[in-house]
Amino acid sequence: MSQRTERRGIHVDQSDLLCKKGCGYYGNAAWQGLCSKCWREEYQRVRQKQIQDDWALAEKLQREEEAAYASSQGVQSHSQSTPPQQPPGHTSLGPFSKFEEKKTNEKTRKVTTVKKFFSPSSRSASKKETQEGKSPSPSISRHASFDTDQVSRDFVDFLKNLQKTGREIHKQCRAFIMNMSSKKDLSAEELSECVQDFYQSMADRLMSHFKGSSDSVEQVMDQVEKYIMTRLYKSVFCPETTDDEKKDLATQDRIRALHWVTIQMLCVSMDEEIPEVSENVDKAITDIIEMDSKRVPRDKLACITRCSKHIFSAIRITKNEPASADDFLPALIYIVLKANPPRLQSNIQYITRFCNPSRLMTGEDGYYFTNLCCAAAFIEKLDAQSLNLSPEEFERYMSGQASPRFSSSEGDWPHSGHGVTATNPVLAQLNHNLELLSGLSSRQETLMESARSLQADLLSWPDTVQREVNDILEKYPLEVRSCTVSAIDANNMDNDNLPPPLTPQVFAG
Amino acid sequence: MSAMRVDAKVVMLGKESVGKTSLVERYVHHRFLVGPYQNTIGAAFVAKPIQVGEKVITLGIWDTAGSERYEAMSRIYYRGARAAIVCYDLTDSSSFQRARFWVKELQNCEEHCKIYLCGTKNDLIQGDRSLRQIDYHDAQDFAEEIGAQHFETSSKTGNNVDELFQKVAEDYNDTAFQYMTAEETGVDLDQKKDSYFYSCCHNN
């Protein structure tokens, strides 16, 4: 680490370009001003020191963890009713945070060196360790990040319910992981065999322990798988001994080269113009991409299953009936082509090698996984025939000389009935949206127009009314007639017919 | 986990539009048993519990894409299957040819997989005998030759459908029993392995 502080900026001075050790060769800024040879020596020295430090720390951690576990178990077995005052993970938290500190220091170095530093060194370290007959390999705990720490803690918590058996399982799993870490140079297939053998023997033992209750066995096995594979993930996912990485790149390039494949060529019964369908398609794509971020084979499988369920929903919405395999597989192929999931081959290989086989071979997850394998195989082997194209057309599309989007208007391929917009669903959606927008804006304009004319109308309305009133007033000027007040009876025509008014009569008497 | 535990994998093979999906649909929705499978959105995978004697066996029924463009991948599908229902359309002789193809594939690749030959759309023939293109005895002879069970079913009327799947489950149950007895002799081997782990732990 000491060189880091001495590190200087790049100077143009000739003497600064030479190796700092003064060996006469040119140095390199990337090697902290040293030439390649001196850098290697220097680096080796520091690395050795670091390995030893790490190792010592890891051993300490391991011991503490073990002690914590044993003590928590001890508390459990002594008085089963009272729970342990402190979960075992807590005691190991302190050292782990120290460890994290170390890790961040390490992270400032280049990634490649970190990678280099893992593979050969841990092997030699573990060899040394077996000679000395010492227990935990540092390389295991070095992988421990927050995630793995959490998983171990969960695992221990889970096993606590199983009392003595739990301790036994924990012991065996640890032993197995250590055992595995000493086998780094085995081929992937051999590693897979080790893991599968372990699953098998563990399942058999659990089977006899639980007296044939396969549900409990499965539950424990799920936890065992989660624990083991989280720990082993880094060393066994896409290992250097295989050509998985090369295959990943090949598949990725292949999918990129097939960007022109349309939904119609694959005969997929999904109509992405229906918003709900395209929503499901997007979710399916997200799920399949998410697969790469999971560590446990079972979690990866869960991603595939979720993706498949979204595809099923999309097909069902389009077709209004439950989807069959004849609809599903092409749709999945289409999704994989659209998503171009990262490290597809590595993930498939990893699941195949390290997943608990009972799940993979029979269950629903297994079914969807198999379909994904088929989709990958189909994409790899895809040719003109599988898309109902002529070899010439296929070649032209592959070489980028033509695009189905343009030729479709000429009716070059079978499903071109929908015209240009139908060839690419995204483009179609875009066009559709544009149309909607232009429609909206024209309607907006009409509305404004009407508003303006309404305003004009309103303004002119009082005038019109005024004018009309004036006209009418002119036509029929107001004549005020003199009003003559007459007697009430004046208008009474039949005056004469009335009997004479009564006259008072005076009666003498 | 939401996923149902499945005992045996059963694949449906057959040419496109031969009625694989209908057969499964008919079988599963014929009797409405309470179970999580009713919520499955597609008919491509179904987990179906079946009563065999005193036991309940759950068959995982795998529908496959029948189109010829996926033929190269079909091997991936039937890997590890305990039973395969090879379907052909009684009114379509080409579908029987394709059935022969799958039978050959299965025999080459999956020797532990039991084969069930299933002629579909029996109801069409009941209506008009001249539609039949695959003679019953020809199919029967072929089935005997390959050591398979032979059924003629109709997903429309439900004729023979239950019998077919019941037979699959019963056969699985019988062979599974044999497996179990065979595994008991293998316990010694496992114990050795365990002692290996013990020694490993004690060294620590």
Automatic annotation (TrEMBL), chain A:
Residue ranges of every copy of the A20-type domain listed in the record: 13-47
Positions of the VPS9 domain: 245-388
Gene Ontology terms for molecular function: DNA binding; guanyl-nucleotide exchange factor activity; small GTPase binding; zinc ion binding
Residue ranges, compositional bias (Low complexity): 76-92
Gene Ontology CC: cytosol; endocytic vesicle
Biased composition (Polar residues): 133-142
InterPro entries, A to Z: DUF5601, VPS9, Vps9-like, VPS9_dom_sf, Znf_A20
Recorded superkingdom: Eukaryota
One GO term of the biological process aspect: vesicle-mediated transport
Keywords, comma-separated and alphabetical: Metal-binding, Zinc, Zinc-finger
UniProt biased composition (Basic and acidic residues): 98-109
Segments for region (Disordered): 66-146
PANTHER family assigned: RAB GDP/GTP EXCHANGE FACTOR, RAB5 GDP_GTP EXCHANGE FACTOR
Protein name in UniProt: Rab5 GDP/GTP exchange factor
Biological source species: Parambassis ranga (Indian glassy fish)
Lineage: Eukaryota, Metazoa, Chordata, Craniata, Vertebrata
Automatic annotation (TrEMBL), chain B:
Reaction catalysed by this enzyme: GTP + H2O = GDP + phosphate + H(+)
Predominant place of localization: cytoplasm
GO biological process, one term: protein transport
Listed CDD domains: Rab24
SUPFAM superfamilies per record: P-loop containing nucleoside triphosphate hydrolases
EC number annotated for this UniProt entry: 3.6.5.2
One Pfam assignment: Ras
Membrane topology: Lipid-anchor
GO CC annotation: autophagosome membrane; cytoplasmic vesicle; cytosol; perinuclear region of cytoplasm; spindle
Molecular functions per Gene Ontology: G protein activity; GTP binding; metal ion binding
Alphabetical keyword list: Autophagy, Cytoplasm, Cytoplasmic vesicle, Cytoskeleton, GTP-binding, Hydrolase, Lipoprotein, Magnesium, Membrane, Metal-binding, Nucleotide-binding, Phosphoprotein, Prenylation, Protein transport, Transport
Location in or out of the cell: Cytoplasm, Cytoskeleton, Spindle; Cytoplasm, Cytosol; Cytoplasm, Perinuclear region; Cytoplasmic vesicle, Autophagosome membrane
Subunit (UniProt): Interacts with ZFYVE20. Does not interact with the GDP dissociation inhibitors ARHGDIA and ARHGDIB.
Function: The small GTPases Rab are key regulators of intracellular membrane trafficking, from the formation of transport vesicles to their fusion with membranes. Rabs cycle between an inactive GDP-bound form and an active GTP-bound form that is able to recruit to membranes different sets of downstream effectors directly responsible for vesicle formation, movement, tethering and fusion. RAB24 is an atypical RAB protein that presents low GTPase activity and thereby exists predominantly in the GTP-bound active state. RAB24 is required for the clearance of late autophagic vacuoles under basal conditions.
Family: Belongs to the small GTPase superfamily. Rab family.
Protein name listed in UniProt: Ras-related protein Rab-24
Organism: Parambassis ranga
Classification of source organism: Eukaryota, Metazoa, Chordata, Craniata, Vertebrata
Gene: rab24
